[in-house]
Structure to design on (202 residues):
């Protein structure tokens, strides 16, 4: 990414310290430092404020980075779709495995005979959990929301970054993820009960 060096140069050209610039765009000095070191990337609202304070356009700030940004957005979107499909498949397989295990136990199968089904259920459940955690890691590490906002803005699309970044889920990510997992577990339980009820007739 070229923005870190370019941002620092524009700031120095404007005669501003990191503290001065941070105060003008309502962020911390550490945030400016992280941008200039390439640790994080400013969101579209920050880019708008930076362009105003440094008297440059957003295109000048992100010039050379946009192709990388769009490539990352497309790559990460595809990866997230695959991980989402993997999570759903894992949950479905886990639910079916648990229903099959209940059927085995209700029909007098011994513990030793049920072990393979237990192992499969554990593998499928762990796989679904790994897919979910991997998806969250990708979104957090690569700041997918920020890159998508910038790409949309440069394409002339409306940016909903303020709503996205001040929403309840953004402010409480861990609790939001817990609710997602709980919802998935509830859906799995409902499907499990339906399958178990159907198999009880056999």
């Amino acid at each position: 990414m070229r923005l870190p060096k370019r941002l620092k140069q524009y700031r120095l050209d404007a005669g501003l310290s990191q503290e001065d610039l941070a105060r003008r765009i309502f962020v911390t000095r550490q945030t400016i430092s992280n941008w200039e070191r390439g640790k994080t990337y400013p969101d579209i609202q920050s880019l708008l404020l930076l362009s105003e304070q440094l008297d440059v356009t957003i295109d000048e700030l992100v010039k050379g980075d946009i192709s990388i940004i769009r490539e990352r957005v497309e790559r990460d979107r595809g990866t997230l779709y695959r991980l989402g499909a993997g999570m759903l498949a894992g949950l479905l397989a886990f639910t079916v495995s648990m229903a099959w295990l209940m059927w085995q136990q209700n029909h007098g199968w011994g513990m030793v005979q049920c072990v393979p089904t237990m192992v499969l259920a554990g593998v499928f459940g762990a796989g679904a959990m790994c897919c979910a955690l991997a998806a969250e890691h990708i979104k957090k590490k690569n700041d997918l929301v920020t890159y998508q906002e910038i790409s949309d803005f440069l394409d002339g699309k409306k940016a909903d970054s303020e709503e996205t970044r001040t929403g309840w889920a953004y402010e409480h990510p861990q609790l939001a993820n817990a609710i997602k997992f709980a919802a998935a577990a509830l859906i799995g339980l409902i499907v499990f009960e339906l399958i178990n009820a159907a198999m009880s007739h056999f």
Q: What stands out?
A: Residues 45 and 161 are 7 Å apart (CA to CA). Residues 161-166 have pLDDT under 50 and may be disordered. The two ends are 61 Å apart (CA to CA).
